[in-house]
Amino acid sequence: MEKAQYAVFGNPIKHSKSPVIHTLFAQQYAQQIEYRATRVELDDFVLMTKRFFDGGGAGLNITVPFKHEAFNIAHRNSERSLLAGAANVLTRADDGLIDGDNTDGIGLIRDLICNLGWAVQGLRVLLIGAGGAARGVLEPLLQERPRELLVVNRTAARAAELVAEFADIGSLEGGAFDVIGSRQFDLIINATSAGLSGAVPELPSSMLTRRSRCYDMVYGAAAAPFMRWAADHDALAVSDGLGMLVEQAAESFYLWRQLRPDTRSVIDHLRESMEAV
Ligand code: ATR
Predict the structure, then answer these.
(1) Domains of the chain with CATH codes
(2) pTM for the predicted model, two decimal places
(3) Catalytic sites, residue numbers
(4) Ligand 1 — pocket residues by CB below 6 A?
(5) DSSP H helical segments within 117-174, as ranges?
């Protein structure tokens, strides 16, 4: 039997861990799949996607910078991708149409709750950033019923816009960094891209208590500045987003194969191979 074809499209894509993750998932269930990482030029996304599915491809993961474009070209979008305004999964359905979905938010929640044991319910939560990454996790975060959810962003207007869009799903506030004032938070999530340039958003360390947990949605070098900042200010616990990456992939795998892979062993494997570098 021919192997089912999957891929991740993005740019850059060289360091993508998705092929390893999906290959390990497939091995758990002896699934015959092939999963590639493909670098797509900025103007070629629509063409490459069409070519992939016309050629019999079964499913795509979509990463930076194409998630919004993926959302636009899907014939149908799930409620999750409609809320996020972005799709990180495209699947060829039985009727031949392309379904868009977004598994980033559920990936974050599963990592926080199932892997790290950081329940969100009843907590004072700060989400830093108001770009695509923040938008993708707002609805699932609100579903966990935090006591407070404050979204802060360097550019205040973007935070205000985001909060207005999600206001009918749950209670949340938004603004510039100075809205934090003397407030303190139990869970602080960095959804900015500041770490990519080695920076940390300019936030008051007084917002941390000794019971605060800090999470960066990216991993590797990009997560290091915020994690260091949190550790230096005595956060109770810090985590990068490696688990979120694996969990969003697991949910994609489930959409494609109707099988739920074990994620713990895959996270451990990736962690070990990152430490060995
Ligand atoms: P993504 O899809 O990764 O969210 P994006 O939509 O470009 O990418 O958003 C990047 C986010 O990181 C924004 O919230 C951005 O703040 P602005 O809206 O003010 O640009 C934030 N960001 C990037 N670099 C930052 C820095 N050095 N300090 C604080 N915030 C930063």
Answers:
(1) 4-102+245-276 (3.40.50.10860), 105-240 (3.40.50.720)
(2) 0.96
(3) 67
(4) 129-134, 153-155, 158, 192-194, 199, 201
(5) 132-143, 156-166
